[in-house]
Design a protein that fits this description.
83% helix, mainly alpha, 396 residues, 0% strand, globular, transmembrane, 17 helices
Length: 396
């Protein structure tokens, strides 16, 4: 199937280039679309790691792939590869991740094909497959539409901002999602316990998502200047807006995991499909006003969809909107307070490296102190877990 998709995209590349008035996209597309074919080799192995709760192995695969692709992409950018640096980064991630899940998974394909399990799960899994396809098509379509309506330099700045946001957000989503889905499914018959576990995971996600993504938004000017250079500074406003949406994405994904664990892949499909339709409508209506108003609208849609995901979940489990807000808002407030303190601490400084160092250090110390002073239970549990790991570490 992946080879068929690649061949269709390969043939369609000249049409995509013509639509965007950019001839270079023909070659660019034919190379970057290889990602579909490469990723297909790791699909079954990633599913094996997911099914058997091999969280450490899957997370390490994602982290190593993200780091290696980031380093490769930055190196290509410094060597003046231009837009090809994004292609290099994307393919490096997919090759590395696919190789690592093959390494960690003991399962190997054979020539014995059994269709009964596939037919039995077809209804449920086909809706998840369709949802994932919608997400993939939407991401590519959004990029193509932006390329059609805006000049190449603007789209490049947006792509750069979106790359960093996606990297941070997907890392958090993968870290929690690898555990959430199988754990929530395992307690499907114990509704009260399932809600308690879900809320604990929600607090854990917010504990890290808020400071990570809102913090990236806060240090964006210095971060972009120091990592990829002054010529990419126009992407800073885009990155700052997208990071707000990125902080919500892992939380929205948690609700998606809950719906799937309850066997409601239809609700997952409808919720995702409606969101993508609203996002596409917003793009078509607002493109004359520029990229920034468009990104503000997409961010607002992500915030709105948090309430919609919660409403869909509330139909299945006893989880009110107020309970959801109690699990998320405290970490948002504490993060903003820590960022406010860091802003004043770094205000007199001008050197980018010194400024970003002070911002990160002050934010980290302030956030940890506030969590400790407020006696945040999930924070205490994380510290206890970390200390226990350190104590158990064998001494040389």
């Amino acid at each position: 199937m992946s080879l068929t998709i690649y061949l269709l995209l390969f043939v369609s590349s000249p049409l995509i280039a013509e639509f965007n008035h950019t001839p270079e996209l023909t070659t660019l597309g034919r190379v970057i679309f290889l990602g579909f074919f490469i990723s297909s080799f790791g699909t079954a192995h990633a599913a094996y790691l997911f099914r058997h709760l091999m969280v450490k192995e899957k997370t390490s695969s994602q982290v190593v792939a993200s780091l290696l692709s980031g380093i490769t992409g930055l190196s290509a950018a410094f060597l003046d590869f231009g837009y090809w640096s994004l292609v290099v980064m994307d393919l490096t991630y997919k090759i590395t991740y696919t190789s690592l899940v093959w390494h960690y998974s003991p399962w190997r394909p054979s020539m014995q094909i059994q269709l009964k399990p596939a037919f039995r799960m077809f209804g449920f899994s086909s809706r998840i497959l369709l949802t994932n396809l919608l997400n993939t098509v939407n991401n590519q379509l959004l990029q193509s539409i932006l390329g059609h309506f805006y000049v190449q330099s603007q789209v490049g700045q947006y792509s750069q901002a979106n790359k960093w946001t996606t990297m941070g957000s997907s890392l958090l989503t993968g870290m929690v999602g690898n555990v959430a889905q199988p754990v929530l499914s395992s307690v499907n018959e114990e509704k009260d316990r399932q809600v308690r576990i879900f809320r604990k995971m929600l607090r854990f996600t917010a504990l890290f998502a808020m400071p990570s993504l809102l913090g990236l938004s806060f240090v964006a000017p210095e971060f972009i200047y120091l990592t990829i250079g002054e010529k990419w500074m126009p992407c800073v406003p885009y990155l700052q807006i997208l990071c707000v949406a990125g902080a919500i994405l892992p939380i929205n994904q948690m609700f998606s995991n809950l719906l799937i664990s309850k066997g409601h892949s239809d609700s997952y499909l409808i919720g995702t499909g409606t969101f993508l339709a609203c996002q596409l409508t917003a793009v078509l209506l607002l493109y004359p006003y520029g990229i920034q108003p468009l990104l503000y609208t997409i961010t607002a849609l992500n915030l709105l969809w948090l309430a919609i995901w919660q409403w869909l979940a509330q139909r299945l489990v006893k989880l009110s909107l107020w309970q959801t807000l109690k699990d998320i808002l405290p970490f948002t407030v504490l993060t903003l307070t820590a960022l406010f303190a860091a802003y004043w601490a770094a205000l007199p400084l001008e050197h980018p490296l010194l400024k970003i160092s002070v911002k990160i250090f002050t934010t980290g110390i302030a956030y940890a102190t506030l969590l400790q002073l407020c006696h945040v239970q999930i924070w205490r549990e994380c510290l206890d877990f970390l200390l226990e790991k350190i104590r158990r570490k064998p001494r040389l």
